[in-house]
Amino acid sequence: MNIAEIHFHNQLSGDSFPTMTEEVLAGLTGKPKHCSPKYLYDQKGSELFEKICELDEYYPTRTEETILIHAMPEIAALAGKDATLVEFGSGASRKVRLLLDSLSINCYLGIDISREFLIESTRRLAADYPWLEVHAACADFTRGVALPETIEPRGLVAFFPGSSIGNFTPEAAERFLKSLHHLLPPGSGLLIGVDLLKDIRILEAAYNDAEGITAEFNLNLLDRLRRELGLCIDRERFSHRSFFNTDESRIEMHLDSRVAQVLQFHGQTIRFREGESIHTENSYKYSVEGFQHLAARAGFASRGVWTDDQDLFSVHYLLASPAPESSP
Questions:
Q1: Are 171 and 43 in contact (CB under 8 A)?
Q2: Which is it for strands 156-160 and 133-138: parallel, antiparallel or unpaired?
Q3: Domain 54-199+286-320 falls in which CATH fold?
Q4: Of 315, 251, 306, 308, nearest in space to 52 by CA
Q5: What is the pLDDT of residue 92?
Q6: For the chain, which residues make up each domain, given as ranges?
Q7: Which residues pair with residue 223 across a beta bridge?
């Protein structure tokens, strides 16, 4: 067993990127107010999201897993032998076990922004697969990462499950895929889950569960801001709201201020009107063809796509095409 945190980037510090405080301050003083969804995933947030994945209303996880199981022989043929698997947003590393049980993988690298959750999940993975070389990299992959020198660049298969690509605007999703195309050598595979357009009632139920776990997941963001940044904010003065924005083809998640209130944060006065919200997350939904076109613009060719019987969700296997030669 080999579990090591071999590649740690604190990309929230330094001159190149704003800190968490700077990002949160910019979001809360913006119009409209917003906060990056990546800050939903501290240790507790990651644990709550794993509970969400078990809910009856939340179809993406079980549907994606079913698709992967049925498509695994074809995926294995596309991935080839002795592949290195790189998982973005590894979380609890549940779906990746389906790949490890069926594909020819000799090395695994899990990348996630939640350090404690990442180490815990990859340690379990290494214990359950003692033959596998396991690495963990705590990084904000939305800002770009570099593969550790110890990772063999040939035979790479990147895994980006859970329709996390939907958290990006379509423009940002294309930029992110272009950054992956730059990271991955030509011929590398990208196995990615993408949520599909469907009945609005199914979509909205998935983000407004009867047990209130999604609401707790959303409100936990305020607890984190209070604990880590010292923001004097009372979660009891906010409520969870999510809905499908038909014009933008996305689920939106918000924290609505129940009352008019004033906050002080790093010398700034932040005023909330009653009903004014902090926009915390988007989850864009695609058609199969629409996502394939987006991926093609980023330099990826479609090699396989699978959906469930109800067309709720899709899994794509993309191939990183060689970069076009520049003109002399």
A1: no
A2: unpaired
A3: Rossmann fold (3.40.50)
A4: 251
A5: 58
A6: 19-40+200-284, 54-199+286-320
A7: none
User: What single letter denotes the amino acid at residue 204?
Assistant: E
Q: What CA–CA distances, in Å, run from 204 to 147, 154, 207, 234?
A: 37, 41, 5, 26
Mean pLDDT of the region 167-174: 95
**pLDDT tens column, 39-98:** 999 989 989 999 999 999 999 999 999 999 999 999 999 999 999 999 988 665 678 999
Mean local confidence (pLDDT), 226-231? 95
Residues 255-295 pLDDT 10s: 999 999 999 999 999 999 999 999 999 999 999 999 999 99
Closest C-alpha among 239, 236, 240, 235 to residue 207: 240
Task: Give CA separation, 182 vs 9, 107, 241, 322, in Å.
Answer: 18, 21, 37, 10
Unique residue bearing structure tokens 């030509």: 186
Phi, psi of 120 (to 5 degrees): -60, -45
- Select from 304, 37, 321 the least CA-distant residue to 164: 37
* 307 in Cβ contact with 218 (< 8 Å): no
